[in-house]
C-alpha cells in the first residue's frame, strides 16, 4: 500500500478533557455506523459513499475519449457553480504547474465560468474565446441555476455562431440529470454529448463523478491515479476503530466545538492547496451550518496570511482552532544559494532547501499558536500528487458526513441557500415572483 494521509492529534488533544474524549470517539463511531447503514438523515444522497469502488471503467473510458477528441481544442470553458466547479478547480490548481497559464501546453487550457455574475468577467471571457479554439463543459442538474445558465447561454451562442450547429455538438458536453431538467431537454433536442450526475450525489460530494473527473482529465491529470487514492481511503475510513482518520478528525473537531471553539481554520503551507480550502469550506459550511449549529469554516494560506492574520490568530479572541494540512515532501528540490558579502543575512541558510525553511515556519507557528491557546490538528500528506489528493478529498467527505451526524443535522441538504435565490428571482421580475418583488422593493 502506498503512503497515505493520516491525522496527527498530538497538539489538539491536550485542549480536550481526557475523561470526556472517549465519549466523542464513541459518538463518531456510532455516526459512522449510521452512515454506512444508510439509515441516517439524508440517506437518499449517499451515492458518493461507495462511488470510488463502484465507478465503472466505462465512465473513465468515455472521459478519456472526450480528451482525445478535444486534442485540437485550445480552451475549455467549464461552466458550473458550487460543487459543480470547486472540486475540479481544487484538483487542477493543486496538481498543475503554478505558472501553467504562461507555460507551453500540449492540451487545452481550462477556465471556469458560471461561478459568478460578473459582467466584466464574462465580457473578458468573450475576449479570450475570440482568440482560441473553444469547447465547453456545462454542469448543472437543473440547467436553470442563474449563474451557470447565464454563462452557458453566452458561451453556447459563441460556439454556435462561430462553428455552426454540427460542430457545436462536438464542442459542447453537458453533465446533468439523467432524465429531468432544462439542460437534459437541451441535450436531447440539440444532440450534445452528455454525462449523468447521479441523482443520489449532491453537488458538494460530486468531485469523483464526471462533474469533477472530466475537467480534471482535460487538464491532463491522471484520474485513474486520483481514483486509486479514493478507493484506498474508502477502505480505511470504513473501519470501525478509533484509528480510522475520519473518526479521529470528526471526534476532535466536535469535541473542540463543544468546548467553545466556534471557528475551524483550515491552514496549508503549500500555495497550490488554496482551492482545496475553498472546496472544503463549501463542503463543511453547507453540510453542517443548520439549525443554528456548526463550526464556521474559514481558511488561510501560510506563511502568506501570517503577515495579515497572524496577529489575530495569536492574540485575538480564543474561539478558533486550526486544522493544518502538512505535505511531508515537495515534488521539486531547490536550495538557497550562498552569496558573497551576505548583505541580506541569509548565508546561515545557504545549502538548506526552501522546503526546510517552510517546515520550520510550520512547526514554529503551530507551537506559537498552541501556546497562545489555539489548538492545532494536523493532517499529514506524504506527497501532493493525484493519489494522495484523491484520498484527502474523500477523507474530508467521509469525516464531514460523520461530523454532521454527531451534530445531529442532515449533512446532505442545503435549504438555507434557497432564501437568497428567491429574493434574487423576485427582484429580477422572474415570472411567478412579482408579488414578492413588490414587497421586497418596499424594504429597500
Question: How would you describe this protein?
Answer:
It is a single chain. With 444 residues, the protein is an alpha/beta fold. The protein has 2 domains: 6-41 and 226-411, Rossmann fold, CATH 3.40.50; 51-224, Rossmann fold (3-Layer(aba) Sandwich). 48% of the residues lie in helices and 12% in strands. It has helices spanning 10-13, 21-37, 51-54, 57-69, 86-95, 119-129, 146-171, 182-190, 210-218, 223-236, 245-258, 274-288, 310-315, 354-371, 386-407, 418-427, 434-443; strands at residues 6-8, 75-79, 109-113, 134-139, 172-176, 193-196, 263-268, 296-301, 320-327, 376-381. The protein has a 5-stranded mixed beta sheet, sandwiched between helices. Strands 3-2-4-5-6 form a 5-stranded parallel beta sheet, with helices on both faces. Strand 2, helix 5 and strand 3 (109-113) form a beta-alpha-beta unit. The chain is globular and about 60 Å long. It starts with 5 loop residues before the first strand and ends with a helix. The mean pLDDT is 94.
